[in-house]
Design goal:
Helices cover about 90% and strands about 0% of the residues. The protein is mainly alpha-helical. It has a domain of about 40 residues. It is rod-shaped and about 185 Å long. The chain starts with a helix and ends with a helix.
């Protein structure tokens, strides 16, 4: 009862409490603040979603960059292996070539020795024949 009498006393003494536009203004302000809070919540959600999407995008880019680096490393290792194999084959080829050339050189040396030996034998035989001819024929 006391509350009702106090409420009646306030409404009769101040004309603003009886004005319907005042209550409409209060309701509009409450609605305005509720809408502002809802919009702020939506913006926060959108901002957090945007940050999450950016983080996911950065993570994907990092993954792609890592895969790219790994692929390049594999290619580099493969190229090094091929280059080492080529170098090894080249060295083996050089060794074989040197071995063959050494054999050819030995054959040529042996051929020269055989020719010299044969020439010496022929010369010695010719010398023997000349001596026999000299013995047979009187000195003129």
């Amino acid at each position: 009862m006391l509350f009702q009498s106090l409420l009646l006393q306030i409404t009769h003494t101040h004309p603003i409490w009886g004005n319907t536009f005042f209550y409409l203004f209060i309701a509009t302000m409450i609605l305005f603040f509720v809408v502002v809070l809802a919009i702020m919540k939506l913006l926060r959600n959108k901002t957090s979603e945007s940050k999450l999407m950016q983080q996911q995008h950065v993570a994907k880019i990092d993954m792609v960059r890592k895969e790219h680096a790994e692929t390049l490393e594999k290619i580099r290792v493969e190229m090094l292996k091929r280059e080492e194999e080529r170098s090894r084959q080249w060295i083996e080829s050089e060794k074989e070539t040197l071995h063959v050339l050494n054999g050819v050189s030995l054959l040529l040396d042996l051929n020269d020795k055989i020719e010299r030996n044969q020439s010496e034998k022929i010369l010695s035989k010719l010398e023997e024949i000349r001596k026999k001819i000299e013995k047979l024929s009187p000195i003129t």
